[in-house]
Amino acid sequence: MKRLFYCFFIVVICLSSCSQYEKLRKSSDYHLKYRKAFEYYNAGDFVRAGQLFDDIQHVFRYTSKADTVTYYQAMSYFKQRDFFTSSHYFSRIYRDQRTSPFAEESEYLTGFCYYRLSPRPELDQEHTYSAIEAFQIFLTRHPNSQFKEDAEKYLAEMRDKLVDKSYMTAKLYYNLGQYKASITALNNSLDDYPETKHREELMYLLLRSSFLLADNSVPSRKKERFQSTVDEYYSFVGEFPQSAYVRDAQRMYERANRFLRARGETEEE
Predict the structure, then answer these.
(1) Which CATH number fits domain 176-269: 1.10.220.30, 1.10.8.870, 1.10.260.40, 1.25.40.10?
(2) Residue 62 CA to chain centroid, in angstroms?
(3) Which alpha helices (DSSP H) does 124-218 contain, by range?
(4) What is the pLDDT of residues 40-77, one digit of tens each?
(5) Is 70 exceeded by the pLDDT of residue 266?
(6) Tell me, what's the pLDDT at 154?
(7) Does the pLDDT value for residue 12 go beyond 60?
(8) Portion of the chain with pLDDT greater than 90, in percent
(9) Rounded average pLDDT over 130-158
């Protein structure tokens, strides 16, 4: 019986609280809403805090409290892990109120929101590019910021993700047996990210794609493409002479060379 009474009591309190909150939402007392928004925020009720900051932000937009309202509006969504919405409000602060004491942190948090929105490498990287741009601009504007170390770390992570994206895209064409497209994608990846950690494998796949394309070509294209295989072989072993792929690279080179020597003898006759 006591347990039932306790549950009933909790329900009554919750209903009363909801009713009071809805009355507050409909109120035109914006200063009361301002105070209550911070009460909810400090109590960890970021949903209600965010809703109240939404209600009052247009009222305080051109006042001395504008940056404070926008900052905590952004933080309310940030605490809810709604990084897309919070990035919008953070960017508004450093764009429109650059003298605000919240401006530097808001600019950093804009980049961090895009960082949190950045997906796995195999997916679309729009937010990754946005994070990179935001962190680069932030570091240029605030070279001595307290957030510098974190911004540099996240920037490096985002760049590595683009490297992985490029690598995975190039390798996908190879795995699908689309060797002509693979050669283009592999070359693009190496050109875009010459210091990539995947460089050895990419160069090996470039050699192998060249060999397989030549080996499966019509007779009229074989000589030209096997010559490309020989060129890729020299590039690969010149850079990675101790690679675990060297034996296979040597095998492809020898087959390509045998074809070219035989073709050369035929042409001389």
Answers:
(1) 1.25.40.10
(2) 34
(3) 126-141, 148-175, 179-192, 199-215
(4) 999 999 999 999 999 999 999 899 999 999 999 999 99
(5) no
(6) 98
(7) no
(8) 84
(9) 97
Rg of the Cα atoms in the chain: 30
Angle at 34 between CA 104 and CA 88, to 5 degrees: 40
Q: What is the number of alpha carbons within 13 Å of residue 162 lying toward its C-beta?
A: 21
Six-digit token pair at 134? 């935001």
Quick check: 261 and 231 in contact, CB under 8 A? no
- Amino acid in the structure at residue 94: Y
pLDDT tens digits, one per residue of 80-115: 999 999 999 999 999 998 899 999 999 999 999 999
Sign of CA pseudo-dihedral 181, 183, 186, 188:
negative
CA dihedral 181, 186, 188, 192 (to 10 degrees): 160
Cα(115)–Cα(128) distance, integer angstroms: 6
A 10 A CB-CB count for 7 gives 10
Q: Which amino acid is at 151?
A: A
The pLDDT, as a whole number, for residue 10 is 45
- With beta carbons less than 8 A apart as the criterion, state whether 136 and 120 touch: no
Residue 225 CA to residue 27 CA, distance in Å, equals 76
C-alpha to C-alpha distance for 3 and 1, rounded to whole angstroms? 5
Instruction: Name the token pair of 45.
Output: 């009720």
pTM: 0.81
